[in-house]
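Hi there. Long-time user, first ticket. I'm pasting a complex I've been working with (about 813 residues overall). I'd like to know whether the download I got is complete or cut off, because the file seemed smaller than I expected. Thanks.
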Amino acid sequence: MAHEQSFLLRTSPHIHAGTAVPVIMRNVVYALLPVCAFSVYVFGLSALVLMLCTTVVCVLTEHVICLSSKKPSSVSDWSAVITGLLLALTLPPGFPLWMACVGSLFSIVVGKAIFGGLGFNLFNPALVGRAFLQAAFPVAITTWTPGCALHRFIEFIPSTLAWPLMSPPSVVEWSKQAVVDGFSGATPLALQKFDHVTTEVPKLFFGMTAGSSGETCAILILLCGAYLVVRKFMNWRIPAAMLLSAFIFSALFYWADPAKYPSPLFTLFSGGLMLGAVFMASDMVASPVTPLGVWIYGALMGFFTVIIRLKGGLPEGVMYAILLGNALSPHIDNLTQPRVYGTSRKRVKP
Amino acid sequence: MKKVAVNLLKKEKRTFAHGVHPPECKEATAGRPIRRLAFPPQVIVPLQQHTGVPAVPVVREGQEVVRGEPIAKAGGFVSVPMHAPVTGVVHYIGLGPSPTGAMTPSIFIKAYPGATQEILYGAPREIDRMTPEELVLAVQDTGMVGLGGAAFPTHVKLAVPKGKQVDTLIINGCECEPYLTTDHRVMIERAEDILAGVVVAARAVGAQRVIAGVEDNKPDAVEALKSALTRCPLQTEVIPLPTKYPQGAEKMLTKALLGREVPSGGLPVDIGTVIMNVATLAQIGDLLPKHQGLIERVVTITGPGVLKPGNYLMPLGTPLWFALEYAGFTGKANQVVFGGPMMGMAISSLATPITKGVTGIVAFTEPVGDGAERPVYPCIKCGSCVDACPIHLNPSRLGLLARKGQYQAMEEEFHLNDCFECGCCSFVCPSGIPLVHYFRVAKTANRQRRAREKAAASSGGNS
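Hi, the file is complete. Here it is re-exported in full:
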């Protein structure tokens, strides 16, 4: 027998569980697809083009940045696709495409690349992009159109195709002629906050309301999240903590003054809370890693959401709640380091 | 009914938090009885195959030795002697291959082809009346080290320091590493020897109670051990533990069986227990009354690279090529690991000898779990490693610090030295970050830094 044979040398462990980053990211994309499909079903062509637009711009931006910094392209890890899809899902369906492109660019460049790319960003990139859009285009981002419009699969919402650097045309006229019974252009949150009109919970649950393109159908978002949890690609504790805490705090308000404040169930299923809790708060990169930390993190975000919604000037608070939570996440991690085996942290026995 | 519920609850508790479930891959060899390997034409006995000080040769080149004869004496207290694994002639004393890849001082013995290879060295003796101190020395004379893989001199464990009390002897029959089945077979086939070893070890450490922990994927071993231990004069218990890696680590066992944690930087003896591997106990029970030395051990040879996987009893110093050839090596393996795949060592040369701490030879034909080409992504802080670490460290944070070279902070703030390199974090990491490797590098860098500081302090004091 030949005594000379070359073997692979490396340090232990020599086996691996098999899950890799692109697998996780790809599965998050899979989980987002039903939400996207529902959005296209309700809002039509405009929503579809909006998603394609943000996704393509995000991926291209990531690719160009990698090339220009002479690094191998990180497009294949699928994380830019998630950012693109999430950004589109948080925007109104009739959002002008050129603004969406600017937002996508901002998401990847400022939300991710300047921190050092995937794994180093402090904030959820999609939400950074959305926060920028909210500040830059406050009118466009709060211009809602009713879902299930008559010709939604063959014509765009007029504002979608606005020229760059031009104000989008008004959609009021279009909304009036396109409207279907029972559909209003105002979001349930705005109706509740400014007009004190409460939308029934089942309607919210099944997504038959106006709103951002991907936030309307709570049940679908929950099912897609459940898929990720079952495949162990998501820490279920974060959305659970966030939803639970939003429920509890809004219940406290509701209990104090039911006439003024919405019911906790309404809070839970309205606006972007479900989408944010399931797909954005749970973003691994920007959330804590310690077992206790994730509970605190989720609970804080739920609390912020309720406070901003009920006490702030805006009808919706999920975005800022999550960004605040992201900012606190490193500190939460530091304060909640688990007790290491064989060491006593505080309990000093007499 | 209530009692059953209480028992179930109790059983539930008998494990540790975190850990991982790698594929077991034990079915190829678990049912195969221990078979003796042929004697190789030459054995290589490294003088350091244990933790501690190397042994010192007591033979010279050209000297004839009989099987079982001492060929090297212990180099100190934390050291063990070596015995000739074959009858033959010492033809060379010098540098030889070792599992770490480094060339280390070794004794090369050519076996006589015509020798009967009977063990001619040794004198039966009465061990029942020996004092604990005499037992410790007798165990050192056998050259016994922990056969579970760590190769720590057994007599050092048995010598309980003054002021320390040991109440429980733990028998470690977990064998939580994938692929390995040596302990499994030893428990089934040599339960009597284990019993004899338990009696000796318990007497040496003064333990009143004996608890055996065996993973529940080996019910036959649990039964064998149970029936043998009924004849033990001490209070004994055999506990099936949930199959989970690294259940066989000392720290995990004390937690699972006694609910006690080994203090950071301490030893199990600090919490009143001594842990012995089943194969070690079997060898003590067998060798001590015969006054013989440790010259062979059971090794699992398995993996897709061999046609005849099995559990082989082989002379220490058997070269890897000989053992592999005997087990039907296909010649196609591209990675060979001594020990299990989680903590074992990748071997560079087929000339490497089997040493006292080698539990298995696993020949992989292709990188398992596409490990070799596994791309490394940045840490996405998924927390999988935090949920896997049995010591409750934060490997994610440690890995980031390691990348920045902040080795001192890793040690002082993040308990680096409590890591025993079980590999759970690297195993689960979706980014494919070689965390354990980083930690080894960091520990070495810290050791070197301390040595430098010490040298600087002492030279500063002299001038």
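A couple of notes from our side: Chain B touches chain A through 74 residues (CB under 8 Å). Chain B has a mean pLDDT of 91.
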